[in-house]
C-alpha cells in the first residue's frame, strides 16, 4: 500500500539489557509523519521520547535492540546496516540532539564539520560546500557567518551553538527533522528566536518536523499533532487542539492542569499529580499510571489498556471511557 | 482547595532583610599569558527589602547574577561592597563567630537535588546535620524524633531514614534538601532554581510544599528561577536582573499585568503559554542578538544592545531604578514614553 506518509512507524519496540534486568524503554509505538507536518512528543523524563527516535535513526546504545517496522517513504529502514542508513541519516532525515556535544566534535572547526557531509553526499567541491555552509549559518541567524564558520564549537554561546546544530541538520534539505529538546537548555528569549526559526524553515522548505519536549507551551505554539508518552508507551494522540482542549487520558489532563500559567493570576495551590513516574524496569501489572490516577478502577490494576482509536485521528489508552 | 498561593504577607513594619548597593565583582584572568586580570561585575548594585513571610522572585537570563546574588546575601560569597542587613544589623564581613548563630535562620536549597547531597551520608544524617551543628545540646533521640517529624512533613516516609540519596528520585532528593533546610526552622531560605531540574508533575508538588511551609512557619523566601510562570505563581514581588543590574522590581500583579521595562516585557512575552489559541495569537517582542559578555558590558544602559527602544542617551547615561508607582520600580530612561 502506498501512502504519502514520509515516515511510518509500526509496533516499534526498544529494549535495553542491563545488569539489573531488561528496560522496556519503548513499547509498540505506532505513528506516521506527513510532509510539512509538526508532531510534538511530550512526556516525563524517562518516558521513552528520545529512544523512539534513536531506534529510528539506528543510534541506540550498544545494550539496546529494537524491533517493529520503520518505513521512510516506502522502504524499510529499521536496523539497516550503518552503510545503508548513512544514505538517509543526516541527509533526508536529520536529528538535533538533546546534548549538543553528541553531534558537534569539539576539536573540529565548524567549517570542517559542516562541509564533510556535503562533499560526501552531495558531491560538492570544498568551495561549494563552504559557501553552502555559510549560507545556512546565515539563514539560522548567525551574524558574521563567513568568519564564524571557521570557529570551534566552544567559541559559540549556548544559543548560537544550538543554531549551528540546526544549520548542520538542515544542510542537505532533509525531509524529516527530529528536534530533541532543542531549546530546553536555552533562555526564553533565545528559545523564542529558535522557535521562530523552526517555524520559518517549515514554511520555506515544507520539512516534516518532530518536536520532542516536556514544555507544553512550546508544543502549543508549534505543533499540529501531539503524542503523549507515559512509561514507555503512547497514552494519547490527537491534534494539538484535541489534546489541549479535550484531553481524554488522565495523565494528559493532569499534565496540563499542573502547569502554572504566566497569563493567569492563580490564587489556589497548583494541581499536582501525586506520586512518582514509574520505573521502566519494574512496571506494575495493568496501567502504568494506576498509582497516580484519580480515576483508577479494579480493572486498571489487572489489565493493561491499549491505545484505542475513538475518533478521527484520536486515540487514548485508558479504561475510564469504556466503563461509562 | 484552599487559597494559599502568594497570599499577601502582612506587611510587618520592618524588613528582616535589607540589601543596599550590593556588588559582587570577580577577578578573572586576562586573555594573554601576562595580561592583567579583568573584573567581572556579576552583581552590580542591588537594593531591596524583604519582609517576614514574603517571597521575592529573582529572574533573568543565564549568567545575569541570580545565584551570585543569593549566595552573597547569605555571605557564602564575600560581597565586594554594599550592605546586607539581617534584622537591622549589617552582616557583610562579619567574623565566623558572629555568623555562626545567624546561619540557623538563613538557609539555602539548590537546583541539582542529588549533587547537593553528600552521597556517603544517609538521608537521616543529612537532614540531622544542621541540628547536630547548631543544637548540640539535643540528645540523639530528640534529634531522631525531629528528623522523622520533618521527613513526614515534607512527604518522605520516615522509615526511609537510613537510605542513601542515590536511592531517591529527583523530586524526593529535593524534599530531602528542603527537610534539611527546614529542620532549624529558619526565617529565610534562598531557593536557587529548586524545581528547574524536576518534571512538570513533580514541580507542582514541590512548589505546593514550599508554599505550605512558608505559611506554616512565616518563612521568607528568595526564589531564584528562570521560569516566569512558576515565579508568577509563588512570588509576591519580582526582581528582574540583567548583567548584574536590576531592571525592574515590582509587586507580582503589577509586573505581570503591566511590565514597564522593555526587558521585562520581552521576557514575559517570550514565555510559551500551554494553550494553542492564545500562544499562536499573542503579541511577542522577540529580542535580537545574544547576551553581551559580562566582562565588557555595554556603556550606559546595560540592556541597550538588545533594546528595541534604545536611543543616544542610553549609551551615555545609565538609568537609575526609579519608583513609577507605589508598587513598581523601573530602570529605564524612557519608561514613560514606551509603556
Ligand atoms: N543505554 C541504556 N541502557 C539502559 N537504559 C537506558 C539506556 N538508554 C536509555 N535508557 C532508559 O530508557 C528509558 C527511556 O529513555 P529516554 O531517553 O527515551 O527518555 P526521555 O523520555 O527522552 O527522557 P528525558 O526527558 O529525560 O530526555 C529511560 O528509563 C532510560 O533510563
Ligand atoms: N567564582 C566565579 N568567578 C568568576 N566569575 C564567576 C564566578 N561565579 C560566577 N561568575 C560569573 O558571574 C556571572 C553571574 O553568574 P551566576 O552564576 O550568578 O548567574 P545566574 O544568573 O545564576 O545564571 P544561571 O541561570 O545560569 O544559573 C556569570 O557571568 C558567571 O560566569
Ligand atoms: S486505565 Fe485506569 S489507571 Fe490507567 S489512566 Fe485510565 S483510569 Fe487511570
Ligand atoms: S534606558 Fe534605553 S536602552 Fe535601557 S531599557 Fe530604557 S530605552 Fe532601552
Ligand atoms: Mg530525552
Ligand atoms: Mg544560577
UniProtKB/TrEMBL annotation, chain A:
CDD domains the record matches: ABC_NikE_OppD_transporters (cd03257)
Membrane topology, record value: Peripheral membrane protein
SMART domains: AAA (SM00382)
Main location: membrane
Gene Ontology MF terms: ATP binding
Keyword Transit peptide applies: no
Any Pfam family: oligo_HPY
Sequence ranges assigned to domain ABC transporter in this UniProt record: 7-256
Keywords: ATP-binding, Cell membrane, Membrane, Nucleotide-binding, Transport
Subcellular location: Cell inner membrane
Family, as annotated: Belongs to the ABC transporter superfamily.
Entries under NCBIfam families matching the protein: oligo_HPY
Name listed for the protein in its UniProt record: ABC transporter ATP-binding protein
Record organism: Thalassospira povalilytica
TrEMBL record, chain B:
GO MF annotation list: ATP binding
Domain ABC transporter: 19-268
Keyword Transport recorded: yes
The keyword Nucleotide-binding belongs to this UniProt entry's keyword annotation: yes
Location of this chain's protein in the cell: Cell inner membrane
Keywords (A to Z) from UniProt: ATP-binding, Nucleotide-binding, Transport
Pfam families with a match to the protein in the record: ABC_tran, oligo_HPY
Main location: membrane
Topology class, membrane: Peripheral membrane protein
Signal peptide limits: none
Transmembrane segments: none
Family: Belongs to the ABC transporter superfamily.
Cited PANTHER family: D,D-DIPEPTIDE TRANSPORT ATP-BINDING PROTEIN DDPF-RELATED, TRANSPORT ATP-BINDING PROTEIN
Name this polypeptide is given: Oligopeptide ABC transporter ATP-binding protein OppF
